[in-house]
Amino acid sequence: MRIATYNVEWFDALFDDAGQLLADDRWSARHDITRAQQIEALGIVFSALDADAVMVIEAPDTHRRRSSITALESFASAFGLRASRAVMGFVNDTQQEIALMYDPAILTAWHDPGASAAAPQFDEVFRIDLDIDASEDRVTFSKPPLELAVETAGGAKLRLIGAHLKSKAPHGAHGRDAVMRLSIANRRKQLAQAIWLRARISEHLAAGDSLILLGDLNDGPGLDEYEHLFGRSSVEILLGGGAAQLYDPNAALALQQRPGLPQPTTARFYLGHQGRYLQALLDYAMVSPDLRQSEPRWRIWHPFDDPACWSVPELRDALLTASDHFPVTLDIEL
Fold first, then answer.
1. Chain centroid, CA 250 distance in Å
2. Segments forming the whole domain that contains residue 245
3. Which of 120, 154, 240, 274 is 20 to 30 Å from the Cα of 207, by its Cα?
4. Whole-Å CA distances, 178 to 170, 175, 226, 256
5. Residue 270 pairs with which residues in a beta bridge?
């Protein structure tokens, strides 16, 4: 089975309110790319992935007049994708939902949120003292993680969690001091979200569930200068330790931080003020210990780092046009 995670930059801007594709020559929300160009590129990428399930990060918006599920299923129909059904969980206010597209002949998936004293339901409030000042902080998710129960056609059962943790970028801050304050505040909130999510993961593992955590964690070791203030990245918190440790080989390699060692990356952003691109490892597919024993295979569909992607010009160009993130796939026997 192939399971993917893919952050599609402003997928929502490619659909009208009826969930139909806007394949025209007007600009998309991506810089200097039309809606038709981005749609065509996404069709090429999703077709090449040929995944049984895709966790879509920044999926189309859902509100009173729009439906992420309708839009995603319309997209799947337009390109004849096997992953033709969609499911999502709690609606958020960011126009960037989290949803799973899947092949109904291979598996069924449904929203199955959990709740406990240690890990409240993800659309609720998490209480934690973030800075050890004896004052309780109330943390929420702007994009509540998507908790899914999954059963394959062969009867295997597992849990999928799709996540998009808070960005640490100091958007809207002006001046060095303001940037520093907002960067630290954002990192604190992101770490709290990671602690909350890890608590739920630990509960699933304690119950004996097979689990895969997929998505854009907006973090990784060494990504900003404030990490040393907190000791651990969100990625390290989510991986955990001991018998309950999740595994992602790209995260493991990044955590080594050895000079000269090639670092995997899943996202590419243009820095206009510097006139160059920044690459980062932000997207992960972490598996529970039992699933690691089945020897799964990970792949980052990076057009410059993956020889198979580079060797197909149509796919290479499509990956660059479709989004500022690249898909991560996990091939696994279930």
1. 14
2. 2-331
3. 154
4. 8, 5, 14, 32
5. 277
CA distances from 174 to 67, 162, 177, 183 (A): 36, 32, 8, 12
| Banded model confidence at residue 136, pLDDT cuts 50, 70, 90 | confident
Orientation of helix 313-322 relative to helix 35-49, angle to 10°: 120
Give DSSP secondary structure letters for 131-181: TSSS--EEE--SS--EEEEEEETTS-EEEEEEEEPPP---TT--SHHHHHH
Nearest to 55 by CA among 105, 2, 130: 2
Sign of CA dihedral 291, 292, 294, 295: positive
Using DSSP bridges, classify how beta strands 211-216 and 157-164 pair: parallel, antiparallel or unpaired.
Answer: parallel
The number of domains in the chain is 1
Given a contact cutoff of 8 angstroms between Cβ atoms, the answer to whether 235 and 219 are in contact is: yes
Cβ contact 167:127 at 8 Å: no
Tokens of 202: 């630990």
Q: Which of 106, 108, 53 is nearest to 76 (CA)?
A: 53
Look up residue 203 and give its two tokens: 């509960």
- In the numeric block, which tokens belong to residue 261? 């060692």
Torsion of CA 189, 302, 42, 16, to 10 degrees: 20
Q: Rounded to an integer, what is the distance from CA 307 to the centroid of its chain?
A: 23
In this structure, which amino acid lies at residue 141?
A: F
Give the burial string for 227-258 (b: 16+ CB within 10 Å, else e): beebeebbbbbbbbeeeeebbbebbeebbeee
The enclosing domain of 293 has a CATH number of 3.60.10.10
pTM of the model: 0.93
Q: What is the dihedral of CA 277, 281, 284, 287, to 10 degrees?
A: 160
Rounded to whole angstroms, the Cα distance separating 257 from 241 reads 18
pLDDT tens track for 223-244: 555 555 556 789 999 999 999 9
